[in-house]
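In the previous chapter we treated chains in isolation. Here, by contrast, the input contains four separate entities that must be folded as one system, with a combined length of 670 residues.
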Amino acid sequence: MPTIEDIARLANVSIATVSRVFNNKPDVSEKTRERVLQIARELGYEPSMPARSLIKGKTGIVGLIVPDISNPYYSEIVRGIEDTCRTRRYNVILCNADNKREKEFEYIDILKNRWVDGVIFHCDYFSEEHYEAFARKNIPIVLAGRATAYDVPYVAIDNFKAAFDAVNYLISLGHERIGLIHGPLDGMKETIDSVDRLMGYKKALSEAGLKICEDLIAEGDFKAKGGYEAAGKILKAGVKPTAIFAVSDIMAIGALNAVLDFGLKCPEDVSVVGFDNIDLSEITRPPLTTIAQPMYNIGSVAAEILINLINGESVERKRIILDHKLVIRSSCKSI
Amino acid sequence: MPTIEDIARLANVSIATVSRVFNNKPDVSEKTRERVLQIARELGYEPSMPARSLIKGKTGIVGLIVPDISNPYYSEIVRGIEDTCRTRRYNVILCNADNKREKEFEYIDILKNRWVDGVIFHCDYFSEEHYEAFARKNIPIVLAGRATAYDVPYVAIDNFKAAFDAVNYLISLGHERIGLIHGPLDGMKETIDSVDRLMGYKKALSEAGLKICEDLIAEGDFKAKGGYEAAGKILKAGVKPTAIFAVSDIMAIGALNAVLDFGLKCPEDVSVVGFDNIDLSEITRPPLTTIAQPMYNIGSVAAEILINLINGESVERKRIILDHKLVIRSSCKSI
DNA sequence: CCTAAGTTCGTAAACGTTTACGATTCTATT
DNA sequence: AATAGAATCGTAAACGTTTACGAACTTAGG
C-alpha cells in the first residue's frame, strides 16, 4: 500500500507538499499539485485514516447504539442518522444491543476504546451509568427518540400529547369504552414513553368525563404476540370495548388479529389505533389509523446535533420535540 | 486523555512495559502488572485505537454495504453479521446505500479510504467495478445473500430449488393455474435471485406437465405496492389463478391484499405463498405459507468467512449454500 | 562465591500522517 | 541590479502505540 512518502519520492517533492495537496491547503503551485495528484492516481494511493485520526485526535466516526436493528421503528431512525452522517462526512459504527443490557454496556466500553467522536444513543432506559461513561471522557452523546432528565441533548416527540390526541380522536368518534395496550412498566424495562403515553390516555378520558376502567388496560411488550395477548385480555374482560389503542403499530397489528380471532370485525365491532406509523401500518387490512412519528427526522436531527456538538459549535436547543401527526386510515369507525 | 506514557511515568516503568500489560504479553511480573493496571484504572485510560491501527496495519473494522437497512430482510442479515463480528471483536461500519447505485459507490470509496479490514457486500447487482475496487487493494470481501460468478466468496441459498419447492408444494395441493410475482428483471435492477426463482417456477410447472402461461406471470419490485399491482394484473387476466407465488413476503402481503380487494378470499379462493419468512409473515391473516431463508445465518456465516479471510486463514469452501425450508401456515388450501 | 540460565524490563525505531517554522525561489519595484 | 515581499517548498517534531533487541537483575547449581 503506497504512502505519502512514495508519492513524494516519485514527484520529487517533500511529504509536506503531498500532504498539502491532499488537504487542499494553499502554498502549493498548480503544477506540482497536478503532478502529485497524477502520481497518486497511478499508485492508487489512499490516505491512511488511522494516521490521520492519530494526529488529529478525531476519528470521524460516531457510535450508534440501538436496541434492535430489525425493529422497523429503530431501523427507520437509523436510516435518518446514517444519511445525515454520510452527508456530513462521518461514518457510523453500528452497535446492536439485541435488547440486552449487557451488550449495551459491552458496546459502551468498545466505543470508548475506539475513540469515537460521539455517540447516538437509543436505549430503552437511559441511566446514570450511561451518562457517566461518556461524560467523563468528554465524548458528546445525544439521545434519538427518547427523552431524559439528564443533561443530555435529545430529540423525541411529545408522547403524552400524542397519546392524548389518539384517544381524543376515538372519543370524538363516540367511543366510550376504549382499551389501552401500553408498554412495559415494571422496573428495568420501563420506558418514559410508556408512562407518558399511559398518562396521555388517562388524561383524555378524564377530560371527557369518561371513567378509567382498569379492565381495559393491559400491558404489552412492543411485540405482535404481546399485543395479541393484551388485546385478548381486554376483550375477555366484562366491559366490551368498542376501541383499542395500542401504543405501537406492531402491537396494534397483534390486537387486530385478536379481534379477528374473537369473531369480531375491525372497524365495525372494534376500532383500533396504533402508534409509530411504520410502513407496515398501511398494508394491514384494514389499514391502521395511527400516530405518525417522524422517525427518519428524529434520527436525522439527532445526528445533526451530535455533529455540531463534536465540532464545538454551540447547540442552541438541546431538547427538541418534533411534531407527531394523527394519520387516519380505515381501522376506526364512529359509533 | 491519558496516554501510555502517563501511566509509565506514574508506575515507574517504561512505556514498553505498559504496552505489554495491555496486550497480555509475557515478560512482566505480577507485581508491576497489578500496579500498571491499578494506575490505568485510576486515570481512566483507554488505549488509542488509531495508534494501534496505525502500527498494526489493521483497523478491526469491517464495512457493511447494504441496499436498505429498513427492509426487514436485510436488517435480519445485518443482525447476523453484527452479532458474529462483535463476538470476534470486530466492529462494523454501516453503509446504507438507500437503493441508490451512486451511494453504493460513494461508500466504496469511503471504505477504501477508511482502511477497513474487509467488506461485506449485499448489493443487488454485483459488477466488475465492485470486484475491482477492493481486489486491487487486497481487501477481502464476501457477499451475503447473493451469489456471483466472480471469484468472491458468498453465502446464499439455492433460489432455483427454493422456488421449485414452493411451486411443487402448490402443485401437490392440486393447483394448476399458479401465478408468479417475480422481482425486477430489466437491466440494471436485475438480480440473479429473481432469474433463478423464475426458472425454478417454470421448471416445477413443466416437470408436472403444466403449461406456462405468460398471463400468470407479473413483475414486482419487492415492495408491497408492487406485489399488489402485480397480483392485480394476474387476477384480471383471462385465466383465473387458484394460487399465487410471490417471490418475497412483502410482495406476498401486497398480493394478499389484492385478492381481498378483488372480493376473493385466501386461501379459499386463491392460495398465496411468499418467500423469506420475515417476522411479518406470521402475523398476517391468514399467516403466510412461505419459503424460509436463514437470514441471520447468512449474515453470520458471511461474517465468519470474512474474518477468517482477514486473518489469512484459508477458507475451505468459498461458496456456501444454506438450506431453505418450506414453512406451511394457513395461506394455502388444497383444491 | 561464580556462573549460567531465566526473568523482567528499557531503548529506540517504526507506523503514516499533519503542521509550525524556516528556507528557498520567484516576481516586481526601484 | 539590488532588494523587498510573495509564493512555494522542505525539515523535523509530534500523535500514541507495538516490538525487536539487548541490558539488568534474579535465581539455582556447582
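Residues 4-47 of chain B form a domain with the 434 Repressor (Amino-terminal Domain) fold (CATH 1.10.260.40). The longest strand of chain B covers residues 61-66. Compare these points with the single-chain example from earlier in the chapter.
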